Amino acid sequence: QVRLQESGPGLVKPSQTLSLTCTVSGGSITTNSYYWSWIRQPPGKGLEWIGYLAYSGRTYFSPSLKSRTSISRDTSKNQFILQLSSVTPEDTAVYYCALTTTTMSVWGQGTQVTVSS
Q1: Sign of the dihedral defined by the CA atoms of residues 60, 62, 68, 69, in that order
Q2: DSSP assignment, residue 91?
Q3: 116, burial (CB in 10 Å: exposed 0-12, middle 13-18, buried 19+)
Q4: What is the pLDDT of residue 102?
Q5: What is the mean pLDDT of residues 45-54?
Q6: Which phi-psi region, left, alpha or beta, contains residue 5 (left: φ > 0; alpha: ψ -120 to 50)?
């Protein structure tokens, strides 16, 4: 059973870079046809998809966040990492990592990130 766990700082200052790690257990991040995503939910709003990292290493991002976003991976630790630069209070949200395949979708429990000075 694949499980995902987000980790990272809960508080980030404006203009800094937000960095979150998703640690995967029960499956490899290089497994064929697995897609690893980051999604967020700002307070009082709906879910917003940020981007994904494919099993091949290819990435794709939401056009609205593309200029500030990167997703990388550490295969030795079976982790993938989100970095969002130049954050503002509008980036305050619960951030989720997720796995999507043709047959299933698995989400982490989410982690709250607040952008404030």
Answers
A1: negative
A2: G
A3: exposed
A4: 86
A5: 96
A6: beta
Structure tokens that stand for 56 in this block: 């091949």
Phi, psi of 90 (to 5 degrees): -70, -10
DSSP structure class, residue 78: T
Average predicted confidence (pLDDT) for the chain: 96
Tokens coding 24 = 């995967």
Total number of residues shown for the chain: 117
User: Residue 49 has which token pair?
Assistant: 């998809």
Helix or strand or coil: residue 107?
Answer: strand
Residues with Cβ within 8 Å of residue 90, at least 6 apart in sequence: 42, 115
Q: How far apart are CA 26 and CA 46, in angstroms?
A: 29
Please state the rounded mean pLDDT for residues 15-32.
95
Alpha helices in 1-107 (DSSP H): none
